[in-house]
Amino acid sequence: MVDEFTTVLTIVHDLQVMKLDEDQFGPHDVKVDYIITPTQIFECQVGERPTNVMWSTLNPECLDILPLLKVFRQRDWKTKRNVCLAGESVVLEQTSEYLGGSLESLKKGRRLAKGKNKRKKRNVQSR
Question: Residue 23 and residue 30: Cα distance in Å, rounded?
Answer without folding.
Answer: 14
